[in-house]
Amino acid sequence: MTEAPLPPFGAAAGSALVPVAGKVEEVKDHAAAGGLKIDLVAAEKLLARLAELRLRAADLVRDSETLGTPLHFGDNWVGRIMADRLRSVAAGEDGGVAPVLARFHELLDSAEAIIRLAAGLYQNTDQQATDALHRAAARLQLGE
Questions:
Q1: What does the alpha-carbon distance between residue 57 and residue 132 come to, in Å, rounded to a whole number?
Q2: pLDDT tens digits, residue range 1-36?
Q3: Where would a tag sit more exposed on the chain, N or C end, judged by fewer CB atoms within 10 A?
Q4: At 139, is the secondary structure helix, strand, or coil?
Q5: CA angle 79, 67, 17 (to 5 degrees)
Q6: Quick one: which H or E segment has residue 118?
Q7: Closest to 67 measured CA to CA, from 42, 47, 87, 52
Q8: Is the Cα torsion angle 46, 47, 48, 51 positive or negative in sign?
């Protein structure tokens, strides 16, 4: 009697992120259309906390790059099977930990965009960049 193989570790996490990613994109579209508003003070607090999470997630993504390193459990079929299985769970494209962490980091980027859109911070940033460009252009014209 053989047991069914265990699903890859990240498969459950990866499949759980799929509906979340879809909802995040829906909310981002809603925020971009102006249908979501957030208080500036609350947005700044959320963005500060989100920045901490993004840094931690980026560290995890960076550190997970080494998970694909070949393991050496001996030069026999048992060692090779164990090494291949562990490497696929850690870094496999079809549900490994590393790809799931990378996708989670992308979702945090989308969450940041939602908060910025809802607080009107993108417009503020665009306006600040425009003002800075006009000031720089004015300085260049004064030097002539």
A1: 32
A2: 444 444 444 555 667 667 777 888 888 888 888 888
A3: N
A4: helix
A5: 120
A6: helix 97-119
A7: 87
A8: positive
Contact 115, 38 (CB under 8 A): yes
Q: Which tokens in the block code for residue 63?
A: 């550190």
Residue at token pair 């997630």? 57
* Chain segment 80-121, per-residue pLDDT in tens: 888 888 887 777 776 678 888 888 888 898 899 889 888 887
**What's the CA gap between 35 and 21, in Å, rounded?**
19
Q: CA-to-CA distance for 78 and 89, rounded, in angstroms?
A: 17
Among 22, 2, 13, 5, smallest CA distance to 94 is for 13
The single residue listed with the structure tokens 């759980």 is: 16
The single-letter DSSP state of residue 67 is G
Q: Strands, DSSP E only, in the chain?
A: none
Please tell me the number of Cα atoms within 13 Å of 24 on its side-chain side. Answer: 18
Q: Which amino acid is at 76?
A: N
Q: Name the one residue in this structure whose structure tokens are 């006009």.
A: 134
Determine the Cα–Cα distance for residues 12 and 19; give it in Å rounded to an integer: 12
